[in-house]
Each structure stands twice: as structure tokens, then as C-alpha cells.
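Troubleshooting log. The previous structure file for this entry was overwritten by mistake, so regenerating from the original sequence record. Sequence copied from the archived sheet and checked twice against the printout by T.R.
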Amino acid sequence: MSAESKDDIKTSEEHEEVSDSPEFLKDILNLYPKGKQSVVNMLLGAAASAAKVASKTADISSRVGKILSASPEQASLMREAGASLKDLREVAGLTVRELSDAIRLPDQSLLAAVENGTATLSFELILRLSALLARHDPLPFVIRYTRTYNPEVWAVLESWGAGRLPLQLERERQFINIYRSCDAARNLSDRDFERVLEFTRSAFEMALGFVSEK
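Regenerated output below.
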């Protein structure tokens, strides 16, 4: 590493594992608006699986939060990510101590080191931070910081299509809004709704075929 040796890097030791325990999930998910909890739950499960895969396919620790690379490139990414995190914290009007307390991080010097680009973040801490600093749009935040601090885990997630999650979720939202914007659809009987749904499905498949032929 250019300015710091690997031994100088702090790691979030007390938050290393990506846990899938019910208590952990409930604790984390309750930090998010209800509309975002299913997305976070999906990300959490995927990250836990990705960490296990990464530990088997690369000579790394499966414990999220450990430094996986000491290259100058990653050091630069960590400095950029740390500066961005500091900006988000300041925009939120929080001190380092206040944010550390909010994410239940006993050692506030760790967060200060992250902002300085000399410490890593575990996946759990990334989720907690996104719940406070990006709670209404957590995916870009989670993706960026996972890519920076857990590159091997992110590589597995990306191979599974995680990088397309924001786009896919936006498309699903647009479909849902079509239904929500139509008051008549809410008043349909179950039978009529099934008929409309079948027609919509057929029309959608026809449209896909039309687009693929162009």
C-alpha cells in the first residue's frame, strides 16, 4: 500500500460476520422504511451466500470487513469512499460520535478512520449506515461500499446480477404504478381481475416478441 502498510489498516472486528440470524435480520431491517425491507433482506441473504462462495474460490477470509487487498488502487477507492461517507454524514448534520452511536459502533475512532480511508467497513455496518444516510434509496449506497470494502464478495454478487438490481427494481416499480394509478382496477372482482391479468400477460408477451424482432 502506498501511504499505509497493511498493519496500519483498521478493521471492524466486532462486525466481521455477515449474520443470517433472525435477531440480526430483525434488528437491521427495522432501521429501514417498510417499503425497503424486502430489498435489504434480499441483499443480506445474497451477501452471506456470496461471502461463502468468495471464501471458497479465493484465498481470502470469509469474514466481511477484513482487508482483502492492499493495492494502491483499492487504497484510492477507500479514500474516495471515506470522503463521500464524510460528506453524507455532514449533510445529515451528524458528528462522528453521533453516527457511531446510531449504528451501535462502540469505537468511534473506527468510523473516523473509515472517513480517512484507513479502515474497512463490514457488510453489517454498510447496511446500518445506509439505513441512516440513504434509507429511501439504499441500493446505490450498499452497492458502492460493498464494491469498495468487499471486492471479492462484490465480484460474486455482480456475477449473480446484483449490479442490475436498481434497474430491475425501478422497472418493477413502474409496473406497480400502472396498477396503482388505475382506480377501476382496485374495484375489480377476483374473477374480472384474473381476466385482466391474463390479458395483460398475453399483451406483455406479445410486446416482448415485437421488440425482439425489431
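DSSP finds eleven helices and no strands in the chain. Archived copy saved in two places this time.
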